[in-house]
Specification:
Chain A: Residues 90-180 form the UspA domain. The structure holds two protein chains of two kinds. By secondary structure, chain A is of the alpha/beta class. Chain A is built from six helices and seven strands; from the N terminus they run αβααβββαβαβαβ. In chain A, the strands form two sheets. Chain A has a five-stranded parallel sheet with strand order 5-2-1-6-7, with helices on both faces. Chain A has a two-stranded antiparallel sheet with strand order 3-4. Chain A has one domain: 3-Layer(aba) Sandwich (Rossmann fold). Helix content of chain A is 38%, strand content 18%. In chain A, helix 5 (130-140) runs parallel beside helix 6 (163-171). In chain A, helix 6 (163-171) links the parallel strand 6 and strand 7 (176-179). By secondary structure, chain B is an alpha/beta fold. Chain B has a domain at 9-46 and 83-154: Rossmann fold. A five-stranded parallel sheet of chain B has the order 3-2-1-4-5, with helices on both faces. In chain B, helix 4 packs parallel to helix 5 (137-145). The longest helix of chain B has 28 residues, at 61-88. Chain B starts with 8 loop residues before the first strand and ends in a 6-residue tail after the last strand. The chains are: A alpha/beta, B alpha/beta. At the A-B interface, helix 1, helix 6 and strand 7 of A face helix 1, helix 5 and strand 5 of B.
């Protein structure tokens, strides 16, 4: 049971990275608390196993429609017109590129956080609904632990779980670690 | 900075179910399998009050309560004993066992606060016939209301 203790401790940890403050905090919390075995080793990852950062991109809408007040024609009966604008492929491309750039920046920041704590992380970007993709990926890679932030908005009381963390808590098949934002000025 | 005294606490909530012992064991294996763990361990069991278990409002309720109470006490002691057994197999340095009374949902969150826990660990019953595991009410409550990080450990379903 206790023999090969080092081996038992090796975990595959999947950390969900989103564009929320809570998410990056969750990452650094996980790094601080899960990678504490070897203190001065240049690469702590060896002692723990694998750290994978996953970021899910929302799928793009292929058309966009503006939501605004209805148009009314005083002379005829009032009617509302909803404009559906089918985006041209160039628009889609640039939006997609912007999204990818966003994701890359986010993961860059995350990797920097990891490096500052002497941990090497692998990065994965998936397309699709974040909550489903994260749980699916966790199952695929047989993660030992899934780490998620709790909610992006820190002003709201910690009692509210964000949609991704709530979904993962229910649906992930592996253990889930939900990191709450720091206590701050809470009395 | 990381002196013996200042170790952050990891509170593990257990009840008499398989799931919570699995959670305790998982935690021990992952975090306490080497002698100098980064955490100190606090194992908390909340014994529900007999009134909440019985839930009767009839005339017979008062008679039943003492029996239920002694039963619950016995179960609680067994739970702690079993937890002690599990933990003895691991080189855990700093460990505390706590027996509290009341609704587990609040009791666990309170215990986590009392010990200034860094992590609160709970198992999950996974009630529900829906294809994915559904959270039990205690773990769900803790996930929402605990001030600290919450770790929900589920017993994996057999794949075959």
């Amino acid at each position: 049971m206790a023999d090969g203790g080092g081996e038992d401790k090796k975990m595959k940890v999947l950390v969900a990275v989103e564009e929320t403050e809570g998410s990056l905090y969750a990452l650094s919390w996980a790094l601080d608390n899960l990678f504490t075995s070897a203190s001065d080793v240049p690469d702590k990852t060896e002692s723990l196993g694998r750290l994978v950062l996953i970021h899910a991109q929302q799928p793009l809408q292929h058309f966009m429609h503006p939501v605004g007040p209805c148009m009314t024609d005083p002379h005829h009966r009032s009617f509302s017109v909803l404009f559906a604008v089918y985006a041209t492929s160039s628009v889609i491309d640039s939006v997609r590129r912007a999204q990818e750039q966003n994701s890359r920046n986010l993961l860059e920041r995350a990797t920097q956080v990891c490096r500052s704590k002497l941990v090497e992380a692998e990065m994965v970007i998936v397309d699709g609904d974040p909550k489903e993709m994260i749980c699916q990926f966790a199952e695929q890679m047989q993660a030992d632990l899934l780490v998620v932030g709790s909610r992006g908005l820190s002003k709201i009381r910690r009692a509210i779980l964000g949609s991704v963390s709530g979904y993962c808590a229910h649906h992930a098949t592996c253990p889930v670690l939900i990191v709450k934002p720091p206590k701050g000025n809470h009395p | 900075m990381a002196a013996e005294v200042g170790k952050p606490a990891m509170v593990v909530g257990i009840d008499d179910s398989e799931h919570s012992f699995y959670a305790l064991q998982w935690t021990l294996r992952r975090f306490f399998s080497v002698a100098d763990s980064a955490f100190k361990l606090v194992v908390v069991h909340s014994k529900p009050s007999p009134a909440s278990v019985v839930g009767l409002a009839g005339p017979g309720a008062a008679d039943v309560l003492p029996f239920v109470e002694s039963d619950l006490k016995k179960i609680a002691l067994l739970v702690i004993e079993k937890a002690k057994d599990l933990c003895s197999a691991f080189p855990v340095g700093d460990i505390q066992y706590e027996l509290v009374e009341g609704d587990p949902r609040n009791a666990l969150c309170d215990a986590a606060e009392k010990h200034q826990a860094e992590i609160l660990v709970v198992g999950s019953h996974g009630y529900g016939a829906i294809k994915r595991v559904v959270l039990g009410s205690v773990s769900d409550h803790c996930a929402h209301h605990a001030q600290c990080t919450v770790m929900i450990v589920k017993k994996p379903k057999p794949k075959h």
